[in-house]
TrEMBL record, chain A:
Biological classification of the source: Bacteria, Bacillati, Actinomycetota, Actinomycetes, Kitasatosporales
Domain 4Fe-4S ferredoxin-type: residue ranges: 1-29
Molecular function via GO: 3 iron, 4 sulfur cluster binding; electron transfer activity; iron ion binding
Keywords: 3Fe-4S, Electron transport, Iron, Iron-sulfur, Metal-binding, Transport
UniProt cofactor(s): [3Fe-4S] cluster
Superkingdom of the source species: Bacteria
Protein's recorded name: Ferredoxin
Role: Ferredoxins are iron-sulfur proteins that transfer electrons in a wide variety of metabolic reactions.
InterPro entries per the UniProt record, alphabetical: 3Fe4S_ferredoxin, 4Fe4S_Fe-S-bd, Fe-S_cluster_ET
Species name: Streptomyces liliifuscus
Keyword Phosphoprotein on entry: no
Length: 65, 414
């Protein structure tokens, strides 16, 4: 599974970082999300799914590849 | 013919429900029954508001999320059409209100919001856990040393957000007392209007002064950070002061209400309180915060928006210029999103609630609010295990008219 982040859509609320700190971080100056792991290990996927569900900008997708 | 048409129109107007709707007596936590009825019958339908206009009322969870992220839906109250103002006063001042994060859309909103977002980064908020714990412990010490029964609102619920925001903004400790007194007064709807206005002015003047000091002698706080942006020409001094006051106002009453009413819900549901108090797993408190945010959905007026283009959704066509009211409580009690939504259950996955709104305007201070609530709920009931209500629920005075729901005082004993 691969994570896609639509950066221009991101509203920098940091919900993804709370749900899945292993996979997401925030840029220091403005809080826009940064993808740390494009292909996270299986045990991290629950956190990523949570991030997809709560991201207020619908900016995160988890795609089969 | 004209007569029949007019007759039909007035019939329709008569049948159209009036918003806001009253809560049921004796049912302090549930949304108004008429709101729940609307959601069951048609989660996107029209209501009539104070000025006679008939905006759409969105009550379904999924519909709210779709519309709050739709670029054709605007938070700009100067957009053409029928923006559904909360009150006549808000309508009057709209024209004179500068562009702020609350009343702009992308790209201006994105620019303004990213400018103030730094201090609210999740990792920077998390660093405030220890200072917040200290504030909460100190206030509980004082409460326990003072008279019993006490009012939880004045002992804990109001001072926590006020002290935390002082800390965040970088208000020196010596001024905390001044800051807290004036912020309570500025927001107290029971206070005389001239006293509230005087308190707001005192706060703005104070923040402007403090900003001046931070320009030359910056510290590690939000005002200093904004002072840096003022120096760099990215933000005007008055924008920075406005933002400081906005954070104070947006974060004060909301967080205080979640502390007081959250505690009331737990005291009324002892088995839930026991789960929060006795669990060794910190995730339980984290989950309880989300569930209480969902269950209480304290922002009770409904978010206000206007459509800038026609939108087809949920079998309806919202026309360009139509107003929208997004009733967060209704969506957070939508059984399709939360089975058994009328029951408080701190173990349910409640994280996808809309209590902080959704989309680009979703609450800027949510990480901070969550942290404050986690510390309070995780501390108060452990330190005061015999805490109980010192009044009957029927005697409490709930605030049905404000932007946020609330209770005038919460007498507790231990
Ligand atoms: C439990 C406490 C809180 C609740 C329930 C709450 C709720 C909300 C809601 C529903 C919105 C969305 C408004 C809209 O979309 O029109 C919002 C926006 C906002 N909140 Fe909060 N809030 C809380 C605490 C805070 C705190 C602690 C702060 C600041 C320190 C804060 C600052 C803001 C700001 C600045 C906005 C405007 C964001 C924008 O329009 O982009 N809030 N809040
Ligand atoms: S949750 Fe969504 S909007 Fe928020 S920082 Fe992450 S990607 Fe951006």
């Amino acid at each position: 599974m691969r994570v896609e982040l639509d950066e221009p859509k991101c509203v920098a609320a940091g919900q993804c970082v709370m749900a899945s700190p292993e996979v997401f971080d925030q840029r220091d100056d403005d809080g826009v999300a940064i993808l740390l792991e494009e292909q996270p290990a299986d045990e991290l996927l629950d956190g990523v799914r949570e991030a997809v569900a709560i991201c207020p900008a619908a900016a995160i997708r988890l795609v089969d590849q | 013919m004209a007569e029949t048409l007019a007759g039909a129109a007035s019939d329709a107007a008569e049948a159209m429900p009036e918003f806001p709707m009253p809560r049921a007596a004796g049912c302090p936590f549930a949304p108004p029954p008429a709101v729940e009825e609307l959601r069951e019958q048609n989660p996107i339908s029209k209501v009539r508001i104070w000025d006679g206009s008939t905006p759409w009322m969105i009550t379904g969870h999924a519909l709210q999320r779709a519309l709050l992220t739709d670029p054709r839906v605007s938070a700009n109250d100067k957009s053409p059409g029928n923006f559904p103002f909360v009150t006549a006063y808000r309508q009057q001042i709209a024209e004179y209100t500068p562009e702020l994060i609350v009343n702009t859309d992308a790209p201006e909103h994105t620019r303004l919001r990213r400018m103030v977002n730094g201090p609210f980064l999740v990792k920077r908020i998390e660093a405030m856990r220890a200072p917040i714990q200290k504030i909460v412990d100190g206030l509980i010490d004082d409460m326990l040393a003072g008279p019993n029964p006490a009012d939880l609102l004045t002992a804990l619920a109001l001072p926590v957000p006020s002290l935390v925001i002082s800390e965040l903004l970088g208000v020196p400790y010596a001024d905390h007392e001044f800051f807290q007194r004036n912020s309570s007064l500025a927001l107290d709807r029971a206070a005389a209007p001239e006293d509230s206005r005087a308190a707001s002015t005192a706060l703005s003047t104070y923040l402007d002064d403090l900003l001046g000091k931070k320009l030359t002698d910056p510290g590690d706080d939000v005002l200093s950070e904004m002072a840096g942006r003022v120096t760099a020409g990215e933000m005007s001094r008055s924008e920075a002061v406005h933002m400081g006051v906005a954070m104070l106002i947006a974060g004060h009453e909301t967080t205080a209400t979640m502390i007081s009413l959250g505690t009331l819900v737990l005291l009324e549901n002892p088995e839930q309180l026991a789960l929060v108090r006795d669990s060794e797993d910190p995730k339980v408190v984290v989950g309880a915060v989300e569930e209480l945010l969902r269950y209480l959905s304290i922002v009770q007026v409904g978010l206000r928006r206007v459509a800038t283009e026609d939108i087809e959704i949920g079998g309806q066509v919202i026309r360009a210029g139509d107003g929208l009211i997004v009733d967060l409580h209704a969506a957070n009690w939508d059984p399709e999103a939360f089975p058994g939504a009328d029951q408080v259950d701190v173990t349910r996955p409640a994280r996808k609630h809309n209590a902080f709104g959704y989309g680009p305007h979703q609450c800027l201070g949510q990480s901070l609010a969550r942290l404050e609530l986690q510390v309070v709920y995780g501390t108060l009931y452990r330190r005061v295990p015999t805490l109980r209500l010192a009044a009957r629920v029927e005697e409490l005075e709930f605030d049905h008219d404000g932007t946020t729901y609330g209770v005038a005082s919460l007498p507790v004993t231990w």
